[in-house]
UniProtKB/TrEMBL annotation:
<feature type="domain" description="ArsA/GET3 Anion-transporting ATPase-like">
    <location>
        <begin position="13"/>
        <end position="187"/>
    </location>
</feature>
<protein>
    <submittedName>
        <fullName>ArsA-related P-loop ATPase</fullName>
    </submittedName>
</protein>
<dbReference type="InterPro" id="IPR027417">
    <property type="entry name" value="P-loop_NTPase"/>
</dbReference>
<dbReference type="InterPro" id="IPR016300">
    <property type="entry name" value="ATPase_ArsA/GET3"/>
</dbReference>
<dbReference type="InterPro" id="IPR025723">
    <property type="entry name" value="ArsA/GET3_ATPase-like"/>
</dbReference>
<dbReference type="Pfam" id="PF02374">
    <property type="entry name" value="ArsA_ATPase"/>
</dbReference>
Amino acid sequence: MSARDTDWDGVRLHVVTGKGGTGKTTVAAALALALAAGGRKVLLVEVEGRQGIAQLFDCPPLPYGERKVAVAPDGGEVYALAIDTEEALIEYLEMFYNLKRAGKAMTKLGIVDFVTTIAPGLRDVILTGKTSESVRRKEKNGSFIYDAVVMDAPPTGRITKFLNVNDEVSGLAKVGPVRNHADTVMKVVRSPETAVHFVTLLEEMPVQETLDGIHDLTEVGLPVGGVIVNMEHTPVLPEDDLAAAAAGALDTDEIVRGVKSAGLENGAEAIAADLAAEAAEHARRTALQRREKERLEAIERPRYTLPFLSDGMDLAGLYDLAAALRDQGAA
């Protein structure tokens, strides 16, 4: 495995959260690829049951089992796990209570769904517990099976409660295997080996949720990682033209001449008007991005920027995003 200095040396659990629509799952997958590059073995965990990882890597829906989904540059490997709550609960019962048969019987009777519905915190306990077990798991020779684990976690508005659920359980269960399990999970989640990364767009609501999420994690002592700005639109106009477009003061006669010189004589005026409107929208978006960037600069955490991929997201684009994260020191 090749050595490389990154912003997250020593971190083995990367929790990726973000407001819905920010591309959280895509960024988690790209981060897993970036971490695996150079001969490392990384596990990408999905906890929301949407099979988003399978779609990104263009593979069949993932079963409840760790399956290799990608080869990273220089021989690294990315494995994926879509955690099934029922199967994880059966594992939990077997591990701590030797009740595998009872767990299967509960599943047949629908009791598992009933229990996790009336006690939704139990679902989070199972999901965080399974992930932390993957972080701690070792080979017979004592080395960790995975060099890193990346969790595609719930959205920002739920992340603090999700990660802190075992602390609440620990407070309720004073002794016994439930308390021991909760303490073990929180030991992983609160350790320097964990970092919670926030994915955002340069828009007001995602940035505000990022700021609020970082504040909430800090309040309960959970480890804040970096901020990953996704889908940034690069300005395509010079500063003077941006200012003119924003003010509605572009020289439309010049645009008409340009359209005609491109061989579009018919309807040149209408085309020029559409182009001016697009330029005004581009100027508005650029100004918005700059304003939200300034808000993010108040956060004293590493920040990474991923470009907007105009051709859409495919496997090649995922590798491009992974390379961008590595180039910026995120992995």
